[in-house]
Amino acid sequence: MRPVVVTGLGAVSPFGAGVKAYWDGLSAGACAIRPVTLIETEGFRCRIAAEVPDGVGGSARRSRGDRFALAAAREALDDAGLGRGARADAALIVGAVGGGMLEAEAWYWTRARGAGTKASRALRSIFPSSHAEVVGSVFGIHGPRETLVTACSSGAASLALAADLVGEGVVPLALAGGVDALTRICFMGFNALKLLDPEPCRPFDRDRRGMSIGEGAAFVVLEDGARARARGARIYAELAGHGMTTDAFHVTSPHPEGEGIARAMRAALEQARLVPGAVGYANAHGTATLQNDRIEAHAIQEVFGEGRLLVSSTKSMVGHTMAAAGALEAVATVLALVHELIPPTANLTTPDPAVAFDCVPRVAREAGMEAAISNSFGFGGQNVTLLFTRAAR
Fold first, then answer.
1. Which residues pair with 341 in a beta bridge?
2. Given pLDDT bands bounded at 50, 70 and 90, which one contains residue 201?
3. What is the pTM of this model?
4. Which residue stretches of 140-183 are H helix?
């Protein structure tokens, strides 16, 4: 396998457009979870989410998700210094779930209330694959093109597949990421399951009551290391290893001992040829549900031992951005390596005694490290761990 390096980053988050806004918010420990404005929330237990600010992503003729994807992809390509010619043969891998569902829902409710029956243009973009089609067309990316739907691990799985394509020499570079916009079906569904906290979520807190939903997009440019160095590209980090496993334990619940989660982390370490002690930070899946946080913490302890590893959940600030989560958290993990700064777990006031790690409560912490992991898990036990190492100085 050839070394695979990160040469471009792009993000749209509840902090606004751009990687700088995203990192500034995370490093400040700010919380972007606020009252919902996009959809009706009357009568719901939870009425908050982390929405992307208005005006991000361009023309309203496209779906909200497509706009997020275009903005984040454009930033990543520009950041990597890739013109149209250089990106023509790149792979494009997108993790997605919701597609243009928000616009489809709006059309349906308008029709159901007798106010019109004509389908909007955005209804054409209802499928998750729409994001890859739009990004590929707009930016002239004509290499392998895939859309991955693995629930909440979709964004991370897209980076793992892209790394395989680059590492095995199928393509010289790839644009990979994830995108999701807030939808009624998602917000209503998690409310019905009673998995949403009426207040901003508190991962790893003893008194946590559930997750908060968010939205956004993130893309990274992954490139053959030798090629990147030959063209003088800025290298943020190396995607040195990844692990992908499936529990197949339950439709929604993870394996109670975190067996598949632990295997994913071990597989990432093995591919990177690193021992557990070489990793200094874990950007946890950290949803703030009682069961998932404890299971993930148990799996981390099984792999890394007790106490030494720093762990935090950026979902405490931008919510669970569904298919975008793994990609946004990968960007956060890369930036933590670059800046030697661990984003905090906001809102964490009373650590759960069952969690045997320092979860960096409320305030970011300076920490030099050579390697870090990002965990992402989806319904059905779809587990992905990405392992990044610091770029050679």
1. 366
2. very high
3. 0.95
4. 154-167
